[in-house]
Amino acid sequence: MKTKLLLFFLTITIVTNAQLKTLSWNVENLGSSKTEATILFIANTVKGYDIVALQEVVAGDGGAQAVARLVDELNRKGTKWDYCISDPTSSTAYKTERYAFLWKTASVTLIGKPWLEKKAGSPKPK
Fold first, then answer.
1. In order of start, what are the domains of the chain with their CATH numbers?
2. CA angle 16, 22, 24 (to 5 degrees)
């Protein structure tokens, strides 16, 4: 009976601890214009989650660099993070953006290559 009870509690603990906290955030023009204070604010806000999806990452180089700065700040907080950034969306120059996905490597493993839905993504060169 004690063995069954111990197994039951162990199973409950594993299931409870297996939950992932996810966050989706429209960060509005995440790019080179974001200050270190803003990057620190974002890092402090998202650090308690396991998976983070960010919208409105600037499509130019500044967006990818801002995401890298954010992940660097998260890594300095004691937990290892990784990330990927989508291709730019196909839209007007004003509305073109990227998406970024961040995750704690201890909680999540990337399987396969990330991709952007063709209707939203840039057309492939022929």
1. 20-104 (3.40.50.150)
2. 165
